[in-house]
Each structure stands twice: as C-alpha cells, then as structure tokens.
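This part of the workshop introduces the protein records we will be handling. The question running through the whole workshop is how a given chain folds. To make this concrete, we reproduce a full record directly below:
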Amino acid sequence: VIQDVDKKGLFTLAKELSTVSQRAREGKLTAKDMQGGTFSISSLGGIGGSFFTPIVNAPEVAILGIGRHKMQPVWNGDSFIPRLMLPLSLSYDHRVIDGALGARFITEINGFLTDIRKVLL
C-alpha cells in the first residue's frame, strides 16, 4: 500500500512503487504494509494477460486491471494507423462509486495515457 497518493508527485510515486514491488517480490512485505488501501492496481500484462476482470479486494472500493499492450490498427477517418493499445478494466463497489463516475475515471486515465503532458503538469 502506498499511503497519501493524492499528496505525492509522479516521480515520488514511481520510486515508492518500485520499492514496494521489490519488497513484494522478495517476500518481505508485512501485514502493516498491506493495510489502509482504498484502491488497487493489478497488472497481468507482464505475464501475457491480455484482458481480465479484477475483483475488488475488500474493504477497498475499486481495482484497476491492466492488461498487455499491443499495436493495433485504428481508423482515423482517412486511413488505418498503428496505435499502441492498453486494455484497462475497472471494477468498483456500486454502493460507493456510481457507474458514471467510474466511466469518467477511465476516460481521465485515457487522457493521461494519450497526452503525457497532463501527467507532468
């Protein structure tokens, strides 16, 4: 669990994620390290998973699943162009998150992924 994500910059988050991931791979995470989360991100792309439906880890309220990216042809109105596509799947507790809010969240993530300048601002 990375605490206070909303108060940290991109580079700080990347460093903390790297540290936590390394400790997890080494089997060195404690129970305290896994407490206090409200949102999870799960990636199966590194092991070849193309798409999956993640299950919310109670008591968290949502989880974002990230699949394996691949180049695909996309029609731009004139011709097909190659685009790198990344499958995302958001699961959430409807008692806490409205479906429209979930859709807007995925749209916002798409905006960040397609225009890196938004992340750096």
In short: The beta strands are 39-43, 62-66, 70-75, 80-85, 88-92. The mean pLDDT is 91.
